[in-house]
Here is the input.
Amino acid sequence: MSAPVFPAAVPRRAVELGSETVLGGMFRDEAELTADVHVAPGTKFGFFTDTTLCIGCKACEVACKEWNVLPADNIGLTGNSYDNTGALSATTWRHVAFVEQVGGATTMQAFQSNWLMMSDVCKHCARAGCLEACPTGALFRTEYGTVVVQQDICNGCGYCVPACPFGVVELGIEDGHAHKCTLCYDRLKGGLEPACAKSCPTNSIQFAPLDELHERARDRVADLHSRGVESAYLYGVEGQDGSPGSTGGIGDLHAFFLLTDRPEVYNLPSRPTLPSRRVFPGLVRGLATMAGVALAAAVLFRAD
Amino acid sequence: MQRAPYGRRAVDVLGALPAQESPPTYYQRPALKASEWRWLIITYFFVGGLAGAAQCIAAVADVFGKRRDRQVVSIGRYLALAGALISPVCLIADLKTPSRWYNMLRVYRSTSAMNIGSWTLFAFGGLSGMTALGQMLDDLFDLPRARAISRLLGIPAALVGALLATYTGALISATATPLWATGYRLLPALFGASGTSTATAMISLFLHRMHASHASIRRVERLALVAGLLELILSQQLDRLWKQEQVSAPLDEPPLAMPYHVGATGLGILAPVSVHVLQLVTGRDFATASFLASLSALIGGYVQRAVIILAGKQSAERPTDYFRTSM
Here is the structure.
């Protein structure tokens, strides 16, 4: 009845290597072994974060910090459930949100003990507000379809920060450049699965080509619906009608989510819009105003 | 597909949120990051708007006013050059890595209002420099050829100046910040009108100081009246829009409510407009009142930019405002 939740139970190459007792030297294309994915340029890769599988262990946060050599931040308690990370920042590229639903506990559907947990990340939008706002070209689209800040070009103008409809990008106070998730650009270059996805113990974070993830995610939603979790839906898949998150010209989020409550509950906007769409309509009206002023001036200066 | 950027729509499986209900938030934590722009950017918005509009006024006065208004033309062109020199200093000083300022001119990206602005300022600087040089040669040595070159270059300089005075409105509109994003149709026009108000105020201050002809001052002040009235209409429309979209809280509450209403609207628009209307109706020139009106317009113009930037920073950190405008 139900479609398989996980890709292949054991990746093909892992089966091939299974008989070898000593794994000598370095692996080429390690992602084949860990995620059953062959990383090659020209394919759009992404994350599918299935929040119904998240257990809030924060392994993704730790793996991300370790691999990307990001310093610790916010050493303290926020009082917001188990979320002491708070938000994505220049030094936090994965953030696990915790939503405790205690009100009406007796009447609620017994599901995930009424805890919602979501590992948030840069969405690597098909049309990215940050990338389109960047005046230097430091933010660019990689050969894997992801959005990355080139640290040797960014001059810290900070325009990408308010331009992101998801509040992801931030300026680093230490080095004066913008920082955000790179979808482990360096690891992809070396054929490795991104650190967060590799470390995720429940496969809540899945890494694969975007098309494959979409298919997998739709199957998962159908499966959850058939099991009675009717609130499950996808956030950030453009598809035929466009799901929440992929609205207003943004298109597919290359890191998209399966949610079971309103996007706002997870601190995500329902219908974000692409900021750069607002440049032209405003400018035209502004220039028309200046033309009107110039006309008035011409009349005034001509008269005596 | 859908045209309007905003609306209260359904998440398919969850149904639409009732109109009277506020969207939920995540522990009231901000869903967006606020810009880090400070007084340097506020100053640039003010100076750039003034300089761009001054260049436009100078070109129009040169072409249509002939030699009669030559003081207006020369003040306008020198102001434009001064603005073109101050602006990049402010912008570069605001960068977190100023030594890489030249990367702004590394690419052309039509989706980036800031990139458009960088090229605009670059062109404006060059054209304003040449126009002002011609003007200076004419002022000092009375050279008709220099005057002709200035007049010719003044036209593209004015076109770029118009863009410089307005694009800053588009720059802040093309963000996710609710206050700025909702005002995207009006902000560039408002900044253009305000740039003209401040430019006319500055020009008329210099005209007074140089004891220019009353007729010249009067013409500039009539233009100030036109710009002031336009600014009044636009700011009222914008104010109504912000109330309607329920994003006006940062402007309605302390500490910004007072500078917004008294500074930007009162000093920046109502006071100078009243003085100019009084002069128009009575047909007399009030030297002191007109001096104060110009000063007031300049202060108000600066306060307006400051209030809009600072209110936007607060707006970005109000998750309900953002969720409400993106449903």
Notes: Chain B has two domains: 36-174, 179-327. Residues 214-244 of chain B form the longest helix (31 residues).
